[in-house]
Specification:
It catalyses: UDP-alpha-D-glucose + 2 NAD(+) + H2O = UDP-alpha-D-glucuronate + 2 NADH + 3 H(+). The protein has 456 residues and is α/β, with parallel strands linked by helices. The chain has three domains: 2-195, NAD(P)-binding Rossmann-like Domain (Rossmann fold), CATH 3.40.50; 205-292, N-(1-d-carboxylethyl)-l-norvaline Dehydrogenase, domain 2, CATH 1.10.1040.10; 294-447, NAD(P)-binding Rossmann-like Domain (Rossmann fold, 3-Layer(aba) Sandwich). The protein contains 18 helices and 14 strands. A six-stranded parallel beta sheet has the order 3-2-1-4-5-6, sandwiched between helices. Strand 1, helix 1 and strand 2 (25-29) form a beta-alpha-beta unit. The structure holds uridine-5'-diphosphate-xylopyranose (UDX). Residues 149-153, 209, 212, 216, 250-252, 254, 257-259, 261-262, 321-322 line the site of uridine-5'-diphosphate-xylopyranose. Uridine-5'-diphosphate-xylopyranose is lined by residues 149-153, 209, 212, 216, 250-252, 254, 257-259, 261-262, 321-322.
């Protein structure tokens, strides 16, 4: 099939590349001339495991190409994907100007039947708005289809090539047929293509992300409670996750959800509900709890240092919002850094992939290390914000030598508690017992007086 993909951000590029991989001829179009030129020369603009191989293979075999020329890209395309940003507007509602703008441009150029597929996460009713744009500008027949993406950064290629399900919102049989043919190679293992109306499909995407964000948030609250009642969140997690109705996945407590999707989508769904005079109370609680959870680690640090971080220096491992990505959007690490700096501390950070992005954002506000051990130099404590594999089994003796102390605040529960006892570390993680060592016991006892409030 001949396909055009408008927008070569994260979703557009993964979609275009993975569609080319099953033999389709894909032209990706973007307004960013420099980015397009780079892609034409085989330079991939994002870090996503496995994508580079497919990207280069499909370019060299002439199934994948890039252009800034929209008219050329859509001329012969049977299906036109729109993978454009829907950033939150000032009031939290999704800004549809990119999507509706692209729809207007396309509507003025087409001369034959097209299926217009929206991949972006959009509020319910967007397909109708896109249809209205086409109706206003052209008499050429189009079908507007909602086809949300469920790609996780870090495993997006696998998610696209072997999806749990493909959701397609359309009532047009012609469009259904084309979409079924297009996705057939991806659902060969029997996972379903779910057809529904456009609005249900649009809502499915928001509901999925909001549900997952709620699941994480619930576990974060359980973890916080575990600390107060001296229970172990790992045990509770396994205890509830063994129930099929709950499931083992997505139950890991941490520093709150981040990234480019969950925060934006939860907020947009809540706003959408408000516009329909519905008070979606759970989502409001989820947003409030998540904001607090992002700095739970700094609360622990403040308690440990008795509320005074002036002149203290911290090593921070992990900047990306999760492992296997360089994406730092809404990353808990940013909130942690901000609060440490506000309290007069200094920070040296390391992330296996996120360094360039963080340097661009924070400049000389923090120091940067070339590897995880270098970050530890002169640190009063190590904070861990992302569960990269490379942090999972470090050389603890070397760490102690470099830091001159054994103090770790771990927002991702990377280490076995008994191991930390054996190594004599002070180790404060999320929803688990606090491991103290003799040198720090006094400070810890002081810090953990019940209900103690540390004023900043
Ligand atoms: C998400 C959805 O999973 C995907 O289907 C959608 O299309 C886009 O948004 P992504 O943002 O890449 O994907 O990340 P995901 O792996 O879902 O994690 C989201 C956040 O939840 C991260 O901040 C992660 O650290 C956090 N998380 C996840 C937890 O805190 N605990 C968990 O158990 C799982």
């Amino acid at each position: 099939m001949k396909i055009a993909v408008i927008g070569t951000g994260y979703v557009g590029l993964v979609t275009g590349t993975c569609l080319a991989e099953t033999g389709n001829e894909v032209i990706c179009v973007d307004i960013d001339q420099l980015k397009v030129e780079k892609m034409q020369h085989g330079i991939i603009p994002i870090y996503e495991p496995g994508l580079d191989i497919l990207f280069l293979r499909n370019i060299s075999q002439k199934r994948l190409s890039f252009t800034t020329d929209l008219a050329m890209a859509i001329k012969d395309a049977q299906i036109i994907f729109m993978a454009l940003p829907t950033p939150p507007g000032e009031d939290g509602t999704a800004d549809l100007s990119y999507i509706l703008g692209a729809a207007a441009d396309v509507s003025k150029l087409i001369t034959s039947y097209k299926v217009i597929v929206n991949k972006s996460t959009v509020p319910v009713g967007t397909a109708d708005k896109v249809k209205a744009v086409f109706e206003a500008n052209t008499a050429v027949e189009v079908d507007v289809v909602s086809n949300p993406e469920f790609l996780r950064e870090g495993v997006a290629v696998e998610d696209f090539m072997k999806p749990d399900r493909v959701v397609i919102g359309t009532k047009s049989e012609k469009a259904m047929k084309l979409m079924t043919d297009l996705y057939a190679p991806y659902v060969r293992s029997g996972n379903p293509i779910l057809f529904m109306d456009e609005k249900s499909s649009e809502l499915t995407k928001y509901a999925a992300n909001a549900f997952l964000a709620t699941k994480i948030t619930f576990m974060n609250e359980i973890a916080n409670l575990c600390e107060l009642v001296h229970a172990d969140v790992d045990a509770v997690r396994l205890g509830i996750g063994s129930d099929d109705r709950i499931g083992k996945r997505f139950l890991f407590p941490g520093l709150g959800y981040g990234g480019s999707c969950f925060p934006k989508d939860v907020q947009a769904l809540s706003k959408s509900a408000e516009e329909h005079q519905y008070n979606f109370q759970i989502l409001k609680a989820v947003m409030t709890v998540n904001e607090k959870q992002k700095t739970v680690l700094v609360d622990k640090v403040l308690k440990y240092f008795k509320g005074n971080l002036k002149g203290k220096h911290f090593a921070l491992w992990g900047l990306a919002f999760k492992p296997e990505t360089d994406d730092i959007r809404e990353a808990p690490a940013l909130y942690i850094i901000n609060r440490l700096l506000l309290n007069g501390a200094t920070v040296t950070a390391f992330d296996p992939e996120g360094m360039n992005n963080i340097k661009g954002l924070l400049g000389d506000r923090i120091n940067y290390a070339n590897n995880q051990y270098e970050a530890l130099q002169d640190a009063d404590a190590l904070l861990i914000a992302t569960e990269w594999s490379v942090f999972r089994n470090p050389d603890f003796e070397k760490m102690e030598e470099i830091m001159g102390n054994k103090v770790i605040f771990d927002g991702r529960n990377l280490y076995d508690l008994q191991k930390m006892v054996d190594l004599g570390y002070y180790y404060n993680s999320i929803g688990r017992s606090l491991i103290s060592n003799s040198a720090t016991t006094l400070a810890i006892e002081e810090a953990h007086k019940p209900n103690e409030l540390v004023s900043l």
